Amino acid sequence: MKRGCFVTGTDTGVGKSFAAVALLHALRRDGGPAVGMKPVASGSVRTPQGWRNEDALALQAASAPRPDYLLVNPYALPEPTAPQIASALAGVRVELPTLLAAHSALAGMAGGRVVVEGVGGWLAPLADGLEQSELVRAIDLPVVLVVGLKLGCLNHARLTARAITADGCRLAGWIGNAVEPPGPHSDAYLGLLRAALPAPCLGLLPYAPGADPADLALNLSAD
């Protein structure tokens, strides 16, 4: 983790971006540099500086030193849909060499400590013929899985953990993110997740709509 990680989720909408920003703040607790990256982002708005994505901007703002936006987010796609569809609508071809060049530049300015946020769940492709696992293997980063704590999360977490390992990548740990108010069996679910997943829990993010991820970074371990 001291050299960065790749953040994926059990699904879309599980708070992956929030957790990635919180993890970035956690990495920076030792006073060292750390920067964020969102290689491909769907759902961007046009600004005078070009297309910008909210999640990528949050990663950029949490970075130290603060990198150029085009390094943080090489592909900002307008439509808020799957990258394969969004890139086709934008007439853009997402290519691995471009992503690797941006990551290399970010790693150079942050001593290798780059928090890279993926798209959707683990098996959501970055582009036609380009899986997220291919990028992860190329940049040689461990994977952190964000588990949205809700009904069904045990199944989704176990399936994702198996897929990460099957793709030849290393699951370094997982973060539990309460995407809804805790239910009567929330503690039991956490116990099942801890027992079932082949990696340690790096922390739990409570249900806190509107919270600043920097304030919740203390809930996470970056070791």
UniProtKB/TrEMBL annotation:
Cellular-component GO terms for this entry: cytosol
Gene: bioD
Organism: Arenimonas caeni
Cofactor(s) it depends on: Mg(2+)
Entry keywords, A to Z: ATP-binding, Biotin biosynthesis, Cytoplasm, Ligase, Magnesium, Metal-binding, Nucleotide-binding
GO term, biological process aspect, one: biotin biosynthetic process
Entry similarity comment: Belongs to the dethiobiotin synthetase family.
Protein name: ATP-dependent dethiobiotin synthetase BioD
Pathway(s) of this molecule: Cofactor biosynthesis; biotin biosynthesis; biotin from 7,8-diaminononanoate: step 1/2
Catalytic activity: (7R,8S)-7,8-diammoniononanoate + CO2 + ATP = (4R,5S)-dethiobiotin + ADP + phosphate + 3 H(+)
Quaternary structure and interacting proteins, as annotated: Homodimer.
An example Gene Ontology molecular-function term: dethiobiotin synthase activity
Pfam family, one: AAA_26
Lineage, highest ranks first: Bacteria, Pseudomonadati, Pseudomonadota, Gammaproteobacteria, Lysobacterales
EC numbers for this chain: 6.3.3.3
